[in-house]
Amino acid sequence: GLCGGVPFFYNTEDKTFLCGEASLEELKKWATGGIMKGAHSPVIGELDFNYITDGIYIGTNQCCQTHFDEKLRKEGIEVDFSLEENRVDAPFGVKYYFWIPIANHSAPTMEHLDSASAILDKFVSLGKKIYLHCKNGHGRAPTVMAAYLVKKGKTPEEAIEIIKKQRPTIHLEESQLQALTNYQKNIKS
After folding, report:
1. CB of 81 closer than 8 Å to CB of 12
2. What is the pTM of this model?
């Protein structure tokens, strides 16, 4: 299973994967060492999030910049899943943390969509609530969420409709819509 239920840390950039204490040490190291070079300084904005479906929430990166937000913990969310280009989360207080870096306004690769859908699927099947976010929760996070729904049999249009109903502020780029269409073809082939 996922490290046998202990916390773990996976960095898709250099493929480090750590289980248990090691992962917490690693997280602590960068979190206490300040935010990574090149990361944008936290924007003082509102925590803005919406429940979509299957225990998955989409929102802004205000969730987790010094620790995992109390409001989200009260919702029973145990998974922080970031798609930010730079590592800005300090996910203290959350059981699981994932980071798949995707550049702002750009489309996830097939590999991104595949891994992300598998992660969402796994946690949904475990009955865990997930907080999925990019910077504003308008493009990358909805794209990944839509891929998860496409994998479940929805068309990209239906998937986007489901998300938009719960989070009207989403707006996917042309390249992100194209990625979903390609992803659907990939699944079918």
Report:
1. no
2. 0.76
The number of beta carbons lying within 10 Å of the beta carbon of residue 137 is 26
Q: pLDDT, tens digit, for every residue of 127-184?
A: 999 999 999 999 999 999 999 999 999 999 999 999 999 999 999 999 999 999 999 9
What's the CA gap between 87 and 101, in Å, rounded? 8
Q: What is the pLDDT of residues 92-124, one digit of tens each?
A: 888 899 999 999 888 999 999 999 999 999 999
Domain hosting 150: range is 3-34+46-188
β-sheet with 77-82: strand ranges across? 16-19, 8-11, 96-99, 77-82, 129-133, 56-59, 49-53
The single residue listed with the structure tokens 């202990």 is 6
HSE, side-chain direction, 13 A CA sphere, residue 123 = 25
Residue 110 sits in a domain of what CATH number?
A: 3.90.190.10
Q: What is the H or E stretch that residue 78 is in?
A: strand 77-82
Instruction: Report how many domains make up the chain.
Output: 1
Helices 140-151, 156-166: inter-axial angle, 10-degree rounding: 130
